[in-house]
Amino acid sequence: MPMVTDIEPRELKPALLELDGISRASIEAHYRLYQGYVGKRNEILAKLETLDRSGANQVYSELRALKVDLSFAIGGIKNHEIYFAHLGGGGGNPTGAVAALIERDFGSAEKWREDLKATGLAGRGWAWTAYDWDEHRLFNYIGDAQNTFPIWNATPLVALDVYEHAYFLDFQTDRAAYIEAFFANLDWGVVNGWIAAYGIPAA
Ligand SMILES: [Fe+2]
Q: How many A from CA of 43 to the centre of ligand 1?
């Protein structure tokens, strides 16, 4: 059995508490949800450590329940770590390497924004701009829950949270207005840092 290694929530950048249009109260509540995902991830892995594997069953079993919900917890961690990391910037059009990738794969920043916004309105939880290492391009993927529908071998670079908890406090049901605020607070420098760190080929 793999050894359990607890992880800790990443700290929230101070800039997240001073976003344009997304309130401090909203971000603080959202961060507590993220802390909850980390706690459940650690709890599930600890339970898996000692679980008797002989009861494994696809209809219902503790192993199944723990592993299905582990995917939800891990999704909640990874999604929110991207989300919190790349907010706190000045928004506007993409710059640097990501600008060239978006231009190549969507035609323009405007078309990328239009498609990501539409994807965010069509999703029940998430929309991601990810680089697919097999297709060698960016695409705006749709998500519903924390664990639907990730694409293997694709690296998310923009994670748009469209769960109601992300916007209801500030925008009630106006998700479109929240998505505009999300764009206005993106930090393209952070996204370009990931492109460099992951070695995503330049356009
Ligand atoms: Fe969220």
A: 20
